[in-house]
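Could you please consider the sequence and fold appended to this message?
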Amino acid sequence: MLLPLHDRNPHRYIGFPYVTYGLIALNCLIFFMQSLLSPHQFETLVINFGVMPAIINGILPSPLGGLPKEITLITYSFMHLDWMHLLTNMLFLWIFGDNIEDALGHVRFVLFYLLCAAFAAGAHILLNGASTGPLIGASGAVAGVMGAYVLLYPHARLFVLATIVIPIPLPIPAFWMLGFWILTQLFYAFFGSGEPIAWWAHLGGIFAGAILAVLFKRKTVPLLGGR
């Protein structure tokens, strides 16, 4: 297991990652509001604003009334099941998001993040077309951020907590940690893990993030760290 702690990758274009921290704050605020709901109210919220492939594909009617069901391709990414689900996603967004915001600029990073969320949901829908289980969480969008990071900053120094026998903090190139993470997603997507995790959403997010990073990055930001 490799748990990222922080990276050593200074900003070059922005003074402060307003969008990254704003997304973290918004996710935390929504989770706090969720915690005030009863279990039944939370279940209703998830059914209404999570991504349910059977609804998107027209197998089941949308519960949103006059609102387009496609808005769930975005809204699902701002809800989380529990604290661990939230904190894990926000940790990864905090570590990697600021540098992608730096590489793209504030406005394009907003669009990038939302598109990654939508493409991640699309991949989940494509591979689970009749599913009635709702998808929630920022994992797909954050996977997009990670896909962009490994393409733009593969050699950046990343400090991780590696668990072999005991947890040990290690500095490694970002490519090794993110590459291992991506391979893990591929393995579980094809062979399963027995856990209710949307592996294909993660892979869709990674792919979208890598492609969109090329399209949205500043012209002066090289691919692969300039190497």
Q: What stands out?
A: Residues 83-104 form the longest helix (22 residues).
